[in-house]
Automatic annotation (TrEMBL):
<dbReference type="InterPro" id="IPR043594">
    <property type="entry name" value="HMGL"/>
</dbReference>
<dbReference type="GO" id="GO:0004419">
    <property type="term" value="F:hydroxymethylglutaryl-CoA lyase activity"/>
</dbReference>
<dbReference type="GO" id="GO:0046872">
    <property type="term" value="F:metal ion binding"/>
</dbReference>
<dbReference type="InterPro" id="IPR013785">
    <property type="entry name" value="Aldolase_TIM"/>
</dbReference>
<protein>
    <submittedName>
        <fullName>Hydroxymethylglutaryl-CoA lyase</fullName>
    </submittedName>
</protein>
<dbReference type="GO" id="GO:0006552">
    <property type="term" value="P:L-leucine catabolic process"/>
</dbReference>
<dbReference type="Pfam" id="PF00682">
    <property type="entry name" value="HMGL-like"/>
</dbReference>
<comment type="similarity">
    <text>Belongs to the HMG-CoA lyase family.</text>
</comment>
<keyword id="KW-0479">Metal-binding</keyword>
<dbReference type="GO" id="GO:0046951">
    <property type="term" value="P:ketone body biosynthetic process"/>
</dbReference>
<keyword id="KW-0456">Lyase</keyword>
<dbReference type="InterPro" id="IPR000891">
    <property type="entry name" value="PYR_CT"/>
</dbReference>
Length: 307
């Protein structure tokens, strides 16, 4: 498949990033940062999750954030729900978002540690939720964690992951994201994986979600792009991680991903200097140095005579 010349990037820092940060992030700062991301041109932002506050206290103010943010009208806001109870709570403010993400881990052990249910139990609930989400006129996205490997079980078979993806699509999901939850993917496998996923899921938006745990995130994104993938998720400032297991570092940095794509001539629709500005502001809010490269280096400034 030919390399896409334009890609979609969903910014997941306000949910997937913030939920794993040790610092308490005031609601005012969250609102200000999300508004800055909107000004950078994002048309997809994952904002909140409807998980019990005692489980993820960092996102306990999700409804208030949804009510207060001011982003362009064409920005699609996503929320994540872990189960039918979470969906019930989300639908109480159904007019505040456009997309709902549901999820499962491809490995039994990770799924049990993450949501305390078997994969079959989770998927039974997901089947019900997907139909409810579609009936509400909302977009349903499905996420498969540990798609490229499990820290507890090791290799996860490609066929198993794609079987779960097909089940999600049959239930009504129009987008399926494949998560490298603890950074176990490599570029060669990313190429093989996304070629197979795109072939197996015609008509479904296939999304790549890489973590940079072992420094291979951008290389994996490049390999997925070359395989034909045109949809990605990332987190400004390289925020985030995975609470299971401890030590799993953040998503690939949005500003680094955008910088790479732009230098390759791949359009994103994003204003890179503004993305970097938002990431630098997040660094100020958190009061510590973040790990993206573009925060330090900035965008490449080519001299007119050398390009």
């Amino acid at each position: 498949m030919a390399r896409p010349q334009r890609v979609q990037i969903r910014e997941v820092g306000p949910r997937d990033g913030f939920q794993n940060e040790p610092e308490h992030i005031p609601t005012d700062d969250k609102v200000r940062l999300i508004n800055a991301l909107g000004r950078a041109g994002f048309t997809r932002i994952e904002v909140a999750s409807f998980v019990r506050p005692d489980v993820i206290p960092q996102l306990a103010d999700g409804v208030e954030v949804l009510e207060r943010i001011e982003v362009p009208d064409d920005t699609k806001l996503m929320v994540l729900v872990p189960n039918s109870k979470g969906l019930d709570n989300a639908l109480k403010v159904r007019d505040k978002f456009h997309e709902v993400a549901i999820f499962v881990s491809a490995s039994e052990t990770h799924n049990k540690k993450n949501v305390n249910r078997t994969v079959d139990e989770t998927m039974a609930d997901n089947d019900v939720m997907a139909k409810r989400i579609v009936a509400e006129g909302l977009d349903c996205a499905a996420v498969i964690a540990t798609s490229f490997g499990c820290p507890f079980e090791g290799k996860v078979e490609l066929g198993r992951v794609l079987d779960l993806a097909e089940r999600f699509a049959e239930a009504g999901a129009t987008e399926i994201g494949f998560g490298d939850t603890t950074g176990m993917c490599n570029p060669a496998y990313a190429s093989e994986f996304f070629a197979a996923a795109l072939d197996r899921l015609p008509g479904v938006e296939v999304t790549a979600h890489f973590h940079n745990t072992r420094g291979q995130g951008l290389a994996n994104a490049y390999a997925a792009l070359e395989a034909g993938c045109a949809s990605f998720e990332s987190s400004f400032g390289e925020l985030g991680g995975c609470p299971v297991p401890a030590g799993s570092t953040g998503n690939i940095a949005t500003e680094d991903l955008v910088s790479m794509f732009h230098e390759m001539g791949v359009e994103t629709g994003l204003d890179l200097p503004r993305v970097i500005e938002a990431a630098r502001e997040a660094q100020t809010v958190l009061g510590r140095k973040l790990t993206s490269h573009s925060i330090v280096a900035g965008p490449i400034e080519w001299a007119a005579s050398t390009r």
